[in-house]
Amino acid sequence: MAMFHMSNDSGLFKDEAGKGLLPLYEAKMFHQFDHRWATYTEDGNTRDLTDEEKSDRTSKLQPRYWVERQEVENRLGDKWNKDWLLAFRDITNPTNERTAIFSLLPRVAVGHTAPIFFIEKKYHFLTSCLFANLNNLIFDSVVRQKIGGTHLTFTVFRQLPVIPPE
Predict the structure, then answer these.
(1) Rounded distance, CA 166 to CA 163, Å?
(2) What is the pLDDT of residues 53-109, one digit of tens each?
(3) 122-146 pLDDT, tens per residue?
C-alpha cells in the first residue's frame, strides 16, 4: 500500500509537530535494519543521523511533515493492528550499493515512495524470516537484475524470489 501520495495528499500535511500528529516518513529517512537513517534539518535539507544520535534511544527523526494520527488510522483501517510497518524504498537504482532496501518502521505516516506490506495475521510470527529474505544479498542481486529504471514497483516485486510462508 502507498499510504500518502506526496502531491495528491499534500493538503493533509502539517509543517510542525502537534498533538495527535504523527511524523511522515519518506523513503530517504530509513535504510536496511535502520528506521532512523536520515532526518530533516531546519533549512529543509536532509542529513544522516550521527552515531551519537543513533546510540540515544530517545533520539527521533525530524520529518518534513506531520499527519493527523486519525488519517493514518483511516488508511490502515482494520488491515493492520501492529505498532510497526514493513516498508521498502521504491526509489532505487541497480548501480546503488544496495538495490532493495526494506525496513521495519514505527506506526507512522508513510509517503508513497515507501510502500508498506500487510502480512496475513496467521503469518505474523514469520515476519523476521520475511524481513531477512527481503534484505539478503541474493535477493538484492535478483532485484538488481530486474530493475529497468529507478523504481522497485509492485509489478517487479511480484517477480522476486520471496520464500512463501508455507
Answers:
(1) 8
(2) 999 989 889 999 999 999 999 999 988 999 999 999 999 887 888 999 999 999 999
(3) 999 999 999 999 999 999 999 999 8
Rounded to the nearest 10 degrees, how much is the dihedral formed by the CA atoms of 165, 89, 64, 49? 90
User: Which residue reads 500487510 in cell numbers?
Assistant: 118
What DSSP string runs through 99-148? S--EEEEES-EEBTTS-EE---GGGGGGHHHHHHHHTSHHHHHHHHHH--
Grid cell 502507498 — which residue? 2
Q: How far is CA 162 from CA 12, 31, 102, 134, in A?
A: 35, 20, 13, 7
Q: Could you say which DSSP state residue 21 is in? A: E
* Spatial separation of the C-alpha atoms in residues 114 and 94, rounded to whole Å: 17
pTM of the complete model: 0.91
